[in-house]
Amino acid sequence: MTGPASLAPVGRDAQLRTLLQAVGSPPAVILVQGEAGIGKTRLVHTAIERLRADRRTVLLGHCQQLREPFPYGPVFDALRHAAAALPAGGRLNPVTGALRGYLPELTGHLPPAPSPPPLDDARAERHRLFRAVHALLAAAAPAALVVEDLHWADDGTRDLLRFLTDQPPEGLALVVTFRREDLPVPGLPFGRAYRRRPGVRSEVISLAPLDVEAVRSLTSALLDGAPVPQEFAARLHERTAGVPFVIEEVVRSLRDDAGRLPGGEDAPEVLDRIPVPLLLREAMAERLAGFSPAALRAVRAAAVLRMPADEPLLAAVAGAEEPDADAHENGLSEALRAGVLLEHPDGQYGFRHALAQQAAYDAIPGPDRRPIHRRAMAALSALDPPPLVRLAYHARHAGDLDAWRRHGAAAADHAAAVGDVPLAVEVLEGMLADRKLPRDARGPLALRLSRIAAVGLSYRRVVRLLRHLLSDDFLSRHVRGEARLNLGVLLANQAGANPAGRQEILAALPDLHDRPDLAARGLALLGLPAWGGEPLDIHKAWMDEAEKLLSSVEDQDPELAAAVHANKVTMAMLVGSPDAFTMVSALPENHPSAAVRRQAARAYSNLCDAATALGHYGAAEKFAARSRRISDESGALYPVYLVEMSSLRLDWLTGRWEGLRERAAAAVEMTAEAPLLAVEARLALGMLALARGEWQEAGEQLDATGVRDPDSGYLPVTAPASAGLIELHLTRDALDAALAETEWAVGRLRRKGLWVWGDQVAPQAVAALLRAGRAGEAADLVSEFAAGVDGRTAPSAHAALDLARGALAEHEGRRDEAAGHYARAKSAYEGMPRPHAAARAAEAEAGARLGLGEREEAAKLVARAAERYAALDATRDAARCRRLLREIGAAGPARRTRRAGGGVLSPREAEVARLVALGRTNREIAEVLFLSRRTVDTHVARVLQKLGVRTRNDVREPRPDDRPGPNH
User: Fold this and answer.
1) Where are the transmembrane segments (predicted)?
2) For residue 160, which of 166, 219, 629, 794 sits 20 to 30 Å off, Cα-Cα?
């Protein structure tokens, strides 16, 4: 009979053709999805055989259901077979040396490990490892990387694959298989929505059950080509629902020794004897009924192990003693010949499918399972390192509860240590949910769970589980207090649910009255003023109480002390305290404890964010560099993400806009599990859209920063977001909406008592009030803002004060004074540097100069602003300056003069094409670009002609090569 490895996928010709075409057109990302037993593996392996026959490099990795904590394991498993595809002579990118400790098979090909050397904590190597994998795959290209059963992947593997899909190596085709219904996040194999990148081929191949004719063809193939009556195929289709694996199992169970169906091929009623619910289980039991004892022991050992194993391990679990070695080998051969077990790569033996494994396991009588699990424990314990997750599983099923608790706790700790927090949570969650877990063991495990979760990014499952545990009364007071404190930290940090986090921390304090160091940690978090509606004085009281409690502890925990000091320094920087930079020098960045250095890394990431909010951009860059360095050395995870998000806002403010929109959009997608991390990316996206006249996008993104959530919104981000919304409303002549946003934003700053974060709100709020004829309120706001930032080290706020004073002076007819204020603001912004704000200040100064009759000076200022806007690709801002220059009667800034011919768009046509692609009407385009409707009509007609399309719906956003180059 035809074996499963050589049996071609029946009824999948179109899918196989699509798969092969996509793999042959790299870069490509191919998703193969379908239920268990539907034929994903057979389809992919048929493609692999053809690719290898054509001498194409195929790297194959598998995700395992019962996995050990080894992030990226399936990918590394695939890469260790890449030697033949790598260039000779050590011509690999130096960064690939970071893979030496993970791929010993490639040591002869890899360059030396980069400095600093790899760390024990895999989290710290994350970014470098990802770049190294990318570089290695690029060197092996053209190649196909196949990862099977992605639904069982660890989070690290998903993150790595997301990294590869964001910008695949030029010659790589990535193929993943998965069961959609078994994904951790339904419908998202990579953990977030996959968006095809330009130039990358993307295919989703969905495998459905076979129809009757395909069932007939498959059955015939299983019977070595014998004809199959239509009636039998129809009945088989009805009984198996067209799932290929179930069809194979049923047909194999019905065949007699001659390979025929009992009762003849014209007897479909034979299927009626197999009950539908037990179809697969009974098919397996019937096949095992005729096995020799040795073969049965081998199959049972493989079923208990749940994953492919080599022959010595199978023999040990089967209970084969030395004299029985030949019998075991014969039994294994018998199981292989019967097709119940298969030989996997590297001399591993197991089942063809998880369904087959489960059916074989179910066929083992209950009393017979425990001895096999005990033998599995003994055999696996001898491995180095021991597979702790598997040991915990076998201990539980062997009834050894002490060993189960010991191995389970160790497995969770090890998983957390190597960055696989979701697996650690899964292990602890399973133990806590088990009725066999003794009551006295639940508290320590709950506490372990809360501590582990506080260092990771995945939080949703942990929050649900901790809340459930805390609702019970079995926890001791100390355990309950610390677990609730950790839950509060988790909610306030990773989850971004600050009101709920503060509530949990406050509720934990009574249980921690005799643990002042832990209580101080909670109060120090409450002391950070960037969240919540409490005034600054309350935050100061919390922080003072934290310091007081910590000082009462004689033998201080260095990590807790560092955590409190980190928050104290962060608070000082956030409020613009003159002492902040002096306090930074006391951070324990060189402490011998990695845990303490992680707190220093967190502090520097917070300082980067705080300095960005105040206009200390050079200092922010230095804080970010220190945080990254210490994170790399100490294995910190959360600070790295915080710095990456802060860098988006910093790059927006400092004018590093090239590629920023793409980075920010990717950050939003990648932080679905931690929404707080996405707010700075949302702010950058909203402000970039505003500068380009993309008003709907701007409004949606700025709203998504949390501007309407006074308790959870991060005020250093929501304040500038509100400023952007005020500007948006003023631009659209929606004065009432602008005034409402002004009242909301100013009210929050006023209640908090922190005006240093109003650097962008104050000028826009003053503009809205002046336009509404409320000059008295505008003057009061300027005075209040000035008093609020007096004595604070906040360069951006002081520059904004000059803008606001300039607007007020200009409104009152004091144009010379206004020009001076605007000029000082422009100079301050240039020194930070903050080019977009400097251009805005230059525009404002130009307006005052025009009022003074200084047309030539005004024209110079506007022309320079237009050049800055054009360099930033701030489309609407640049167009506004060009219109003003036309009104002044001055020549605009130098533009590319080469006549755009053929299909090449001129700069103005490219702007129009982008807005058309966004769905803007000609009237809206005219409004954004300050052009007449007739001019826009002409530009749109030229765009359609040059792009060779018939309708507006066919216009896409221009690529850089659609535009003319500079004159040479």
Assistant:
1) none
2) 629
Containing structural domain, residue 219: 212-274
The CB density around residue 591, as the number of other CB atoms within 10 Å, is 18
**Contact assessment for residue 331 and residue 296, using Cβ atoms and an 8 Å cutoff:** yes
Identify which of 445, 388, 385 has the alpha carbon closest to the alpha carbon of residue 411: 388
Which carries the bigger pLDDT value, residue 329 or residue 62? Answer: 62
- pLDDT given at position 182: 72
User: Is 707 in contact with 713 (CB distance < 8 Å)?
Assistant: yes
Q: What is the mean pLDDT of residues 871-900?
A: 73
How far is 168 from 147, CA to CA, in rounded Å?
A: 15
Return the closest-CA partner of residue 744 out of 709, 694, 784: 709
Q: How confident is the model at residue 951 (pLDDT cuts 50, 70, 90)?
A: confident
Are 45 and 144 part of one and the same domain?
Answer: yes
- Within this chain, do residues 66 and 199 fall inside the same structural domain, yes or no? yes
Regarding whether 224 and 197 lie in a shared domain, the answer is no
Instruction: Look at residue 256 and give its three-state secondary structure.
Output: coil
Confidence of residue 817 (pLDDT cuts 50, 70, 90): very high
Among 159, 177, 129, 140, which residue's Cα sits nearest to residue 26?
140
Whether residues 40 and 186 share a domain: the answer is: yes
List, for residues 720-752, the tens digit of each pLDDT value: 999 999 999 999 999 999 999 999 999 999 999
Query: What pLDDT was estimated at residue 966?
Result: 36
221 is a domain residue: yes
* 63 and 200 both lie in a single domain: yes
HSE, side-chain direction, 13 A CA sphere, residue 878: 17
Domain boundary among 274, 292, 327: 274
CB 575 within 8 A of CB 788: no
201: CATH: 3.40.50.300
DSSP 589-646: TT-S-HHHHHHHHHHHHHHHHHHHHHT-HHHHHHHHHHHHHHHHHHT--HHHHHHHHH
Kindly provide the residue ranges of all beta strands, DSSP E only, lying in 279-372, ordered along the sequence: 342-344, 348-350
Whole-number Å distance between alpha carbons of 677 and 646: 9
Q: Which of 278-287, 432-441, 931-940 has the highest mean predicted lDDT (pLDDT)?
A: 432-441
Distance CA 154, CA 72 (A): 7
Comparing 609 with 902, which gets the higher pLDDT? 609
Residue 54 clears pLDDT 70, i.e. is over it: yes
> Same domain, yes or no, for 161 and 231?
no
Q: What is the pLDDT of residue 206?
A: 85
Query: Are 126 and 29 part of one and the same domain?
Result: yes
Q: Please check whether residue 669 lies inside any domain of the structure.
A: no
Whichever domain contains 936, its CATH number is 1.10.10.10
The DSSP string of 425-483 is: HHHHHHHHH-TTS-HHHHHHHHHHHHHHHTTSS--HHHHHHHHHHHTSS-S-HHHHHHH
Which residues on neighbouring strands pair with residue 178, listed in sequence order? 33
What's the helix, strand, coil split of the chain in %, to 5? Answer: 65, 5, 30
How many separate domains does the chain show? 3
In a domain, 137, yes or no: yes
Rounded to whole angstroms, how far apart are CA atoms 561 and 569? Answer: 12
- Higher-pLDDT residue of 565 and 498 is 565
- The 3-state DSSP class for residue 270 equals helix
First to last CA, the chain: 72
Instruction: Mark which of 206, 225, 253 sits at the end of a domain.
Output: 206
* Domain membership flag for residue 666: no
Query: Same structural domain for residues 251 and 140?
Result: no
Structure tokens, 762: 């104050």
Is the per-residue pLDDT at 927 higher than 80? Answer: no
